[in-house]
Amino acid sequence: MFYRETGQFKTSYGADQQIFPIRQDRIAIGLLLVFAFFVVPAVATQYWFSAILIPFLIFSLAALGLNILTGYAGQLSLGSAAFMAVGAFGAYNFILRVPEIPAILAFLMGGVCAAGVGILFGLPSLRIKGFYLAVATLAAQFFVVWALTKFGWFSNYSSSGVISSQDFSVFGFAIDSPVRKYLLTLSIVAIMGLLAKNMARSNTGRSWMAVRDMDVAAEVIGIPLMKTKLLAFAVSSFYCGVAGALVAYCYLGTVEPDYFTLDLSFRILFMVIIGGVGTILGSFFGAAFIVLLPIFLNIVLHPLFAILGIEISSAVVSNMELMVFGGLIIFFLAVEPHGLARLWQIGKEKLRIWPFPH
Amino acid sequence: MFNEFQSTGKAAPNSGFLMWQMEETYMAASPSGPASGSLDTFPRLLLEHARVRGERPATREKDMGIWQTWTWSQMAEEVRAMACGLAELGFKRGDNLAIIGDNRPRLYWSMCAVQMLGGVPVPLYQDAVAAEMAYVLQDAEIHFAIVEDQEQVDKLLEIKDQCPALQHILYDEPRGMRHYTQTFLQGLDEVIAMGKIHDKNQPDFIPAEIAKGHPEDVAVMLYTSGTTGKPKGVCQTHATFIAAAQSGTEFDSLTENEDILSYLPMAWVGDHLFSYAQAMVAGFTINCPESGDTVMTDLREIGPTYYFAPPRVFENLLTTVMIRMEDAGAIKRNMFHYFMSVAKRCGSDILDGKSTVSSSDRLLYSLGNLLVYGPLRNVLGMSRIRVAYTAGAAIGPDLFRFYRSIGVNLKQLYGATETCAAVCLQPDRQIKFDSVGKPAPGVEVRIAPSGEVQVRGKILFKEYYKRPDATAESIDAEGWFHTGDAGFFDDDGHLKIIDRAKDVGKLAVSVGGAMFAPNYIENKLKFFQYIKEAVCFGHDREMVTAFINIDMGAVGNWAERQGIAYAGYTDLAQKAEVYELIRECVEQVNAELSHDAMVADTQVHRFLILHKELDPDDDELTRTRKVRRGFVAEKYAVLIDALYTGKATQFIETQVKFEDGRSGKVAADLRIDDAKTFPAIRKAA
Amino acid sequence: MAFFFEVLIGGLLSGVMYSLVALGFVLIYKASGVFNFAQGAMVYFAALTFAGIIDMGVPIPLAFLGAFVVMIALGVATERIVLRPLVNQPQITLFMATIGLTFFVEGLAQIAWGASTRRIDLGIQDEPIPWILDNMNMVVSSFDLTAAAIAGVLVAVLAAFFQYTKIGRALRAVADDHQAALSIGIPLQHIWGIIWSVAGFVALVAGMLWGARNGAQFALTFVALKALPVLILGGFTSVLGAIVGGLIIGSTEKLAEVFIGPMVGGGIENWFPYVLALFFLLVRPEGLFGEKHIDRV
Amino acid sequence: MSERKIGEVILDLQNISLRFGGVKALTDISFDVREHEVRAIIGPNGAGKSSMLNVINGVYHPQEGTIIFRGEKRHEMEANAAAKAGFARTFQNIALFKGMSVLDNLMTGRNLKIKTNFIQQALWWGPARKEELEQRRKVEEVIDFLEIEHIRKTPVGRLPYGLQKRVELGRALAAEPQILLLDEPMAGMNVEEKQDMCRFILDVNDQFGTTIVLIEHDMGVVMDISDRVVVLDYGKKIGDGTPDEVRNNEEVIKAYLGTQH
Predict the structure, then answer these.
(1) What 8-state DSSP symbol labels residue B409?
(2) Of A259, A261, A51, A54, nearest to A162 (Cα)?
(3) Which candidate, D32, D91, D40, D4, places its Cα nearest to that of D225?
(4) CB distance A8–B301 less than 8 Å?
(5) Contact at 8 Å (CB) between B497 and B415?
(6) Pick from B270, B298, B326: which residue ends a domain?
(7) C-beta atoms surrounding C204 within 10 Å
(8) Taking a contact as any Cβ pair under 8 Å apart, which residues of chain A between 111 and 140 contact chain D?
(9) Beta carbons of D10 and D209 less than 8 angstroms apart
């Protein structure tokens, strides 16, 4: 309905292959960025930053990471949280042990550590597929959390492995307020989102998808399976690792290995499934959904039960949350396996050919 | 100097420069004098564009997935090289060169290359079968042909023996040509490469050739599709086509910023005017679609600002719109129909800038524009259209109104091959649904006592090629061209065309001998989406009867929704339900006819639905899809008899040609139905 | 040396429990090709339900029957609501759906019975068997031995069920070839309903025994996850594999914890089975008793 | 057709035997392929035709036998090494990447031509972008060649079977192979689609000089378009020669052609 594509013709492959080939989309994304960078900092409250916006962005990044591995390269992983943990503890140790290291670099190095661990646990993917691989990634999940807890060196010998983020600054700005943390997170997520999209639309992404869709055919046309799969593990873990570093430094401040449980891995997997497997956009939708759903349930369920005259505890609400998550996963897998991103896509198509139905 | 005649909007086209003449002639004076001396041929115009707007796009083509673009200076270079190459091959001043193919940039350029050398391009209809081409090739004494691809080469090879003069065939697309060893076959690529060397060696050659050109030289020869007799080559000079293009450019204030989609046959005068002459005069961009199948997609991508299509295209589009909307959900469908009724009420008035529209209607219309009209224009590829024309056949008023009401500035135009297409145009904001507008600047129009429309002006052709007899027959001593159309001017000076003069007949004297204008009735019938073609009979008869061709798409869709199973065209056409459907249409037309005293007696009493589609391949239609009335009447005489003898069915067997050239037979028992007629409503005096 | 055997036997006995959970996986995987990640949650749900009913003052046998009915209901509901809409989807999709099911069942269990640990007293003594303690100087719990015996009986009963009943034969036919089973008129969905109920029964037995040992608590779901490495070792399609795998995992994790654990700070039994399985995968991806298949191009 | 020059032997298969467990798929098969020729492998179902192709491009590794490619001897080769050496192929059951568009599938076919690494691609900067657009241009030539412009951006899963086959050929062509292995390129097609496919195969052979090894069931097609034919039956070679020779070979008639009638 709002699309006016007539006259938007492409005279070069560059223009045809751009991320947003439709002008209205470019305008919309531009407005969204302006809104996120300039309007939100001016109007949002502390609560919004630290309870909604920052976790949303960080989990988007983690979901993006898992989506690269699971959605694009087709390798199911149940160990995303472990890679986040590696990123968090990696960044912590770099800042702790390398004097004068810029915080951003430390975050990236955290990501690199995660990528290394990712490659290690990705090795079995060369021989096994599907849920066999998923089980193998559980090994990473349990092993990493155990190692970070058991070896004090990782947490600088603090009790029960808790790390507290050091004060840090970026380009001379002390990142000490929720607004600044938000802006930093937003910048990192925006840039890494762009990079992911670029990979997805170039040979790297196509190779991943080829391996996902039909690995034998991929190999026959010359795609090296080992390299491609391990690259997916590395890039995916890198994204999760940076997300983990951001959890420690921009979201929670103090974090222990037990934060990065199997449950968190599952939640990130849910983000990918609900948001849309194999889409960049879906990672953001999924993260928003999973971050907002508990808040929404809390707001809705209490009054709802109050009307029915039933007092409910927060434990019940959180259990209901579990049930809703589980139910939604089954619902999405059955009804719309491509998630919210596909719904968005369908809606967009409808608008593009409006008023025609198809 | 060139800028003079593309002055943007300074001369308001409707500023009253029409004068009334006693012998019922309208003439529009040309506000800007004759074209300046140095820019009076197409090659000179090209050089000027390359100089003035060298970096602006001249030609685009959807190829290899994107719109390949050539600027004016690139185009000038290509044309120049092509001209040199042709000269190298021995092409001489005064030679005619055939151009056959879909709308391809290099085919358009070759026209100018030929003109550079003082030759005459002769575009042919690309879908003509070989035998049809042979006549033109012989008649125009073609030595050179530039064709699109292997398909066209094969056709020419088939008739090469009949055209001994044909010495060179140059092809644009080398695909599939590897194993053709004939020496007279060459790729355009080679010719251009050859030309580049030639140009380097003799850089003065082309400038000298261009200098030799004269505005009165023949610039192009267009063969009339000829509803009767053999086609005739209409010779148009640089001067005539430039004049025609110039007057249209002024009339609609066209600028170098226009985009036009060039998808109509290059041999058709309309395409030559819009895609070649006007583009060359105004310096705008022509866009060639990827293929015939992708025109609609390409139209949507390009979004032309200036658009030309015969009524058939608009009609098909509207049919598709209606069919697609049928599938929409109830809410959306109701919204669509509601806003379409709003548009019908006030849309064209708003487009015309009339102040009579109420503010509530304006509000509703702008809401509709957001929800329906804007998106609709967008999906149809018409968002950017400033001016759209239709011509070639009369357009149904409702069809015409539809496009105008959704904000597409669709106008009608009247003309012929002999007049460079542009005789009358509808000025912006003075649109009448049943007129073709006012005479173009510099064109005189009068109505002969016989009712025939006659034209005089700079746009008149020079002659029919090698047919002085025919030339003398159609241009009289005073220089009036006899169009062969019957029409009249209304009180505002707008020309209305009723029919071909020779087609206008009379009912038998026994029933009063009323005027019978078959086209008029047929057009009314054809406006129904279910009716693709209609042929009416009635001259010297007691009543009017009709052949109907159903529209397979629309009727098929309708049948599916009704749950009617059918085995194919012939089967569907003979279904009782379909007859019922068509009868309702016929009766509605009858009701309309009964309102107008002039035509009330010519209501359709009986009709039948033909078992096959009328087809140019079977000579029933011209290449521009006009009915060959005489031929059809003769071919289906047995059916006409059946219509007038009151039979309820009639068996018929017909030869048909298939697309691959094979022929076969279609046979059927055709039903014949009666339609209700209405008593004439006489206006109270 | 006696200590070694004591640890080994303790491990083997807890391995029996793993086998029990793994058995549930194998049953469902064989019959419907679904890797039921929710088996652990079902164990938890069954244990809580059983304990909950007992806490209402119902005698143990009746409580067991009641819990069994609930598990059948859960199994049938799962087949209807989760599996039917997903029929013909890739296995990996079904797998993810069972992760969703896991969350759902866990949430449901805690809402129904509360999240706190419930004790289950089956009246079986959890003391070292004096005879073994005296003669071999090893601590072997009578409870563990009883549990192992129950598990053994259950496996035998299941084997008989598959071998000798009509439903059992139909189940095996389904496991071999879905299409063929359909074509000879075996009602696939009916069979799936039954198999999920049987899996529910196995979960109930496992939940009851684990619950009696450690209390019916959320940690059960993690214990149940250990069944995954068991399956990788044993192969997804082999009942025998599930048992042998369980014993191997149970014994090696205990041995590793006791003999290697102290060197790295302990707690390795959390991850040791997974890493073991991981290495095993690299060597023999199809498992000890699984069927090897060749990718046809 | 007549002008096409058939060159030297470029692929020589000697005494190939392949077993799966105890099952013999190929037994002691030898034949050669000359440069620029169209070589057909025919035989009844289960004759080992697909296994033969899989051996040639390294999906299966024969237990015995030698493969000589351009004078170099190899016992076995990994599939993607074969791709690098210039082998491309299509599969009997279409093996397209279902989640991707036609364009992306063809682009994937060009993966070996891509030299930039993932970091450059992530930045979409300079060489990576240039390379990507260059590949697009090449792929457009294939699209043009196979006349699939109208489905360029359609996900392949949505295409009808015949078009999918054509896209798969396109993906193989995009790699600019020296040897093209086609596994039943016309299976399941109607007459018109078969004609198109034949034309494309011959055009590829003709315009690019690509050597083609194909498996096909339609005898008419095989006899029309191939220069030489190998006949397999139960994993053994029972005939080899020009279409005419094969047609008149007693053993072939008995084992294969005879059973058709």
Answers:
(1) -
(2) A259
(3) D40
(4) yes
(5) no
(6) B298
(7) 25
(8) none
(9) no
Q: Which of C166, A68, A136 is nearest to C174 (CA)?
A: C166
**Which of A262, A241, A244, A269 lies closest to A329, judged by CA?**
A269
Q: Which domain holds residue A178?
A: 22-260
**Residues of chain B neighbouring A23 (CB-CB closer than 8 A):** none
For domain D1-86+177-261, give its CATH number from 1.10.1740.10, 3.40.50.300, 3.30.420.10, 1.10.10.10: 3.40.50.300
What domain count does chain A have? 1
Looking at the structure, tell me whether residues B214 and B326 fall in a common domain. Answer: no
Q: Where in chain D is the domain with CATH 3.40.50.300?
A: 1-86+177-261
Cα–Cα distance, B520 to B589 (Å, whole number) = 11
Residue D54 to residue C297, Cβ atoms within 8 A:
yes
Q: For residue D207, give the nearest of B63, B178, B294 by CB distance.
A: B178
pLDDT tens digits, residue range B115-173?
999 999 999 999 888 888 999 999 999 999 999 999 999 999 999 999 999 999 999 99
Instruction: Give the chain C residue whose CA is nearest to the CA of D89.
Output: C297
Q: In this complex, do C297 and D50 lie within 8 Å of one another by their Cβ atoms?
A: yes
Q: From the CB of residue B255, how many other CB atoms can be counted at a distance below 10 Å?
A: 17
| B456 in a structural domain | no
Whether the bond between A355 and the residue before it is cis, its omega within 30 degrees of 0, is yes
How many angstroms separate the CA atoms of B400 and B410, rounded?
7
The answer to whether the Cβ–Cβ distance between D95 and A235 falls below 8 Å is: no
State the residue range of the domain holding B651: 505-674
Query: Cα angle vertex A116, ends A115, A121, to 5°?
Result: 95
Angle, CA of D94, D100 and D102, to the nearest 5°: 70
Residue C297 sits at the chain D interface (C-beta within 8 Å): yes
Q: Summarize pLDDT for B69-103 with one digit per residue, the tens.
A: 999 999 999 999 999 999 999 999 999 999 999 99
Q: What percent of chain D has pLDDT over 90?
A: 54
Which of B298, B332, B352 delimits the end of a domain? B298
D121: closest chain A residue by CA: A199
Residue A3 lies in a domain: no
Domain count, chain B: 3
ipTM over 0.85: no
For the domain that residue B127 is a member of, what is the CATH number?
A: 3.40.50.12780
Q: Which amino acid is at A294?
A: P
Same-domain status, B545 and B592: yes
- Does residue A276 sit within a domain? no
Residue B145 pairs in a beta bridge with B98, B169
pLDDT recorded at residue C1: 66
Question: Is residue B372 less than 8 Å (CB to CB) from chain A?
Answer: yes
How many beta carbons lie within 10 A of that of residue D104, not counting itself? 21
**Residues B123 and B166 occupy one common structural domain:** yes
